[in-house]
Design goal:
Layout lengths: L1 H32 L3 H9 L2 H4 L1 H16 L1 H13 L7 H11 L1
Length: about 100
């Protein structure tokens, strides 16, 4: 069962990376191919249909990861929150922990 969940999350993250690569590529290439303002708008408008669609895959993968492996996600989040710099105040660390969990 864990293998099935892992494969599902891996597929979701792969789809996100592919769609986000298109967004980032169009954003980077418009600096070189667009000579006028109209051309720049055309390049940036081409990512409109998939701009928000790719983030859906990332959120779905994160949710699936949490529901499939809740103990491991909580362990990873706990390690992340406890590994901050020592000079951070206790109130700030507690506030950050409440915000993230």
């Amino acid at each position: 069962m864990e293998t099935m969940w892992f494969c599902l999350v891996a597929i979701m993250i792969t789809i996100y990376v592919l769609l986000d690569g298109f967004d980032l590529g169009a954003g980077a290439i418009h600096l070189f191919v667009a000579k006028t303002d109209e051309e720049r708008r055309q390049v940036l408008a081409s990512i409109g249909p998939v701009w928000d669609g790719n983030e859906v895959w990332l959120i779905a993968a994160g949710g699936t990861l949490y529901f499939a492996f809740p103990a491991r996600v909580e362990l990873a989040a706990g390690c992340f929150l406890r590994s901050g710099p020592r000079q951070r105040g206790a109130r700030r660390a507690a506030g950050l922990q409440r915000l993230l969990l």
